[in-house]
Each structure stands twice: as structure tokens, then as C-alpha cells.
Amino acid sequence: MRRNQVAVVGAAETTELGVIPNASQLQLHADAALNAIADAGLKLSDIDGFATAVETPQQVCHYLGIKPTWVDGTSVGGCSFMLHVRHAAAAIEAGLCKTVLITHAESGKSMIGKLPRSTPADSLNGQFEAPYGVYGPPSMFPIPVLRFMKTYGITHEQLASVAVVQREWAAKNPRAMMKDPITVADVLNSRMIAYPFRLLQCCLVTDGGGALILTSADRAKDFPRKPVYIMGTGESVETPMVSQMETFNSSRAFKTAGPLAFREAGIAHKDVDHLMIYDAFAHLPLFGLGDLGFMPYEETGPFIADGNTRPGGKLPLNTNGGGLSYMHSGMYGMYALQESVRQMRGIAPAQVPNARISVCHGVGGMFAASGTIVFTNER
Amino acid sequence: MAEPQRARPKPTPETQHFWDGTKAGELRLQRCDACAHVYFPPRPFCPSCASRKVSIFKASGKGFLYSYVINHRPAAPGFTPPYAIAVVELAEGPRMMSNIIDCPQTPEALELDMKLEVAFEVLDDKITLPVFRPAKG
């Protein structure tokens, strides 16, 4: 795909984030969509392309009253929205549609109108993982981490520092769920969830949503907000079974999607001013820094523990507070994208001064899927 | 009310030989007749070279502890926390999820790379689960 041909011209989260007991999941989609449409200065009738995950496009389009000529229901977990951005950019460039709305919402905490997640007993996961006591992401996502730690000499303290640093970012963000400062000792003394991970190394469980609007870069200059251009994109999938990953020393999906986006954008790692790495659990930023090629895996733990990703550090990472401290409705990718867009617009609560390039890297399932978007505010 | 049970696998036509094997006290894997790739989970073709000529064979049942978590909460139905959810690398190459029996469910006892051997846990008259224990000697 050619770089900087498509731009984000509308971006918004739901009016509220956190615990939202007065709205269904479907209504949260609509709330986010209406906020994004207002942000872009558009009408619903201007939308001719639509993408969402988990909920079907027909469900959300009908509820909103949208009549699309292009739809994408790619649903590969929390990074689905990175894939939607990639697909939408290709569709706009190909002339299949002009203005794409991407929505996410999840009643992850209040569970109102939330579709049930189930693992059929005759699926491969149902036969070869479920019988061994896996029960939700906390029991599955951390399974690779002990191997990763042994291979690269990563310590428990370094993994705890991920949560500490992200809390520092969250403290600057009025909309973050968890803002009180924490220490490495606090993390290592928090309740055990699934060894080696404790409560403060696991993501929050909240309600919320977000929406993006994309159009061609040529049209983008006529919109009220500063356009944020799609500079590079990548995507991949590996396996729905964490036990069947090629290795626990890296993620094949990360290693495919990330470098693809860097190549397409034509950037080097030193060009990155701002970075989001989807942090459902504390090990993901370490996998991301290594798999995206920022540094050797051995250096990822010390890099974060030494403060390089904290406010004022040389590589600002997860500047909204991340899934660990900002919010995590279940499919966090949309919130990572929203923060990248805010940083590129220059309006983030913890704004990185003069940031020109933002890399936003997502995961779906337990390392099952991945999507990476490189944004820029210069064309 | 009956105690909640652990999740029961339901075989498909492609996996039936595996579950027939565990019931007979064998851990069965598949090997490609064309490229010799050994793979898991079961399917009637080679995921490496796409050949449909594949054979089922009895694996050694030996392996080592590749990685694990010790799950505290929430616990799955039929499990008493804390319990380890492990990934075992088999001598033949493939990895599989399992539980580790005859071993304290602690970080001290569960050492990465420790040698393991297969054991069989009968769940009911249809399903026997392969689990692993520390290898003797």
C-alpha cells in the first residue's frame, strides 16, 4: 500500500469509560460512533464503509441507520481494529468507498447485551486446551512468559516495572481508571492470579468503546481536525491455541505484522516518537519491543525497568496508561489506536512533545493475531 | 447437586484416533509419509507440506516442561487452585498443553526443562486425558 494516502479524520471514545451500567454493548457502539461523527463534522449519511468486530456489521449498521457499500467484519480479537484500519485504507485507495467508520464497544464489566464467549467441546481448543483448566485470558496469556524469562534472563522485577511505568502515564490521564502511584514491591505483593503474574500485571476489566473515521488524504485537509495519516500497516495470525505457538521466545504474528508496517512506512526504529504496544498482560510490551525489532529480547526488560519508556524517557510507551491502568474492555486495540491519534493530533493528556510518528501494535487472542499501524501527522 | 466437572473433550472424525489411543494407554501422534514432519493436533494431512499421506504412530510419551502457569483464580470447574497448566514439548517435537501430576504445584518443584513422561487420567468411559508426571530416574 502507498503511504499517507488515507487519513483518520474522526476519532472518539464513548462519552464515559469504566463502569457504564446504563448502556448495552450495542448502544456503546452507537455512542462511540456518534462522538466520532461529530468529531469529524460529518453526518451518518456520509458514511459509506463500515467495519466492526464481535458484533456483526449488519447489527451495528442497522442500529445506527448506516447504508454501507463496503463492510469488513474481521474479528480476530483485540487487534481487529488495526486490521480494519489496514483494510479500510486499501478499500479507500481502491475506490470501493470514500468514508469508513470503524466501531468497537464492549460491556466488558457490566455485561449488558454482551455476546457470550464459548469454547465448543469439539473444537481443537475444547479438546486439547480446555480440559487442562484454562479459564479465561489470565490462565492462558501468561503461559509463554516463564520460557521467555528463562531464555532471555528477564526478571520478575523487570516484568513488575511494566505496570509501575504505565501507572506513571495513567496518573497524567484524567480518564484513566487507575491513577495512584505503585511500586515494584506493590506489584510483587499484589494478589496472585496465575503465577508468575499477579493482579497488577493483568489488565483491567471495564466498559467502553471507540470509533474512527477514515477518508482519503486528499479529502482529509477539508475536515475540522488535523489529519492523521496512515503511513504503514501490517497484519498476521498464528494460532488460536497458545500451546501451539511456534515458540514462546517470540510471537510469529508480531514478527510478521510489525516489520511489514515498518517497511511499508519506510521508517527506522529511531524515527519512532511514540509507541503503543497492546498490554493485556505485563509481558506483551517485552515481546513487542523484541518482535518489532526495537532491541534484542534480552534488553527489553532492563530497558523498561531503567525508565526508558516512562514520561520523559527516550521511547514513550503506552502513554494513556495502557490496558493495565487506562482501561481494558476486552478488546483494547481501539483504545491504543485512539491514543496514537490523540498523540498525532497533539491533544493527548500526556502529550509527547513534537511527536511526528506513532507506532500502534495490537494483539488478538493469546498471541493468535496481530496488527500494526504506523501513523504520522506530516504528509 | 453434582460437583462441577472439568471440561470434557468431544472427539471429531479427525481426532478420534487420538482419543482411542489415550483410552488404550497410548499417546498417538501423526507423521507425514512424504516429508517425515511429526505434528499435533491431529488432522488428516501434513501442515508442513500438505500431503494427505500421513501415518498414526505411538509416541514415546517422553518430553520436557516447556512452560507453565500456576493458576490461582479464577479456577476452572473441576479444578482446585492452585494448579499448573503446562505446555510439554514431546521428544518427537510437537508440544501439547497438559497438567503435571505427582508433583507439588509450586515454582520450586516445577522446573523448566524437567523431564516428563505421559500418564493417563480416565475421565469417563469415553475420554481418557493424557497428563504428565516427572520422569523416573
From TrEMBL, chain A:
Coiled-coil intervals: none
UniProt cross-references to Pfam families, sorted A to Z: Thiolase_C_1 (PF22691)
Keywords from the named record: Transferase
Domain Thiolase C-terminal: 234-376
Keyword Transferase: yes
Keyword check for NADP: no
InterPro entries, A to Z: Thiolase, Thiolase-like, Thiolase_C_2
Source species, domain of life: Bacteria
The protein's name: Acetyl-CoA acetyltransferase
GO MF, one annotated term: acetyl-CoA C-acyltransferase activity
TrEMBL record, chain B:
Domain ChsH2 rubredoxin-like zinc ribbon as annotated: residue spans: 19-54
UniProt-listed InterPro entries: ChsH2_C (IPR002878), ChsH2_Znr (IPR022002), NA-bd_OB-fold (IPR012340), Thioester_dehydratase-like (IPR052513)
UniProt superkingdom: Bacteria
Pfam families xref list: OB_ChsH2_C, zf-ChsH2
Bilayer-crossing regions: none
SUPFAM superfamilies named among the record's database cross-references: Nucleic acid-binding proteins (SSF50249)
Domain ChsH2 C-terminal OB-fold, residue spans: 59-121
Protein name per its UniProtKB record: OB-fold protein
Species annotation: Bradyrhizobium sacchari
